């Protein structure tokens, strides 16, 4: 799967009483590939490139460039008896960071009850404690790169219930019968 976007904008601004036009360009390209072995093992790999550039038209004002390169890996193993184990890795390089960030998450899931309607899931997020938020912006005061700590490492246990039947069976049969007659008449 491929996903891409291109943004281009121009904004007139005054910086220190100097008129300038800020021209910004943002390009995002993302490609993802998923391989499955009989739905027992699912492997995902992806790559994302983000480029951001901001130029000022007035003399003496600096331009700003930023890029982010993200490599994504994921592995899901569907075990017998409705157990699933999965993990994800994101390796992020950014020209404003001293070293790359590795975000590692892991999950264990068990489905149970009749028709596997209930699920218990354990999630371990940011196992290596490296996640950071990176944001870039340009406004009337110039360009800013902000690096802050993101959501800290956490563990979560969730219980979910997925009802499979809604309404009465007789109502569904009657509705399907009417739909079939309408299709025959149309």
UniProtKB/TrEMBL annotation:
* Name of the protein: Outer membrane protein beta-barrel domain-containing protein
Q: Organism, per UniProt?
A: Niabella ginsengisoli
Judging by the UniProt lineage, the source's domain of life is: Bacteria
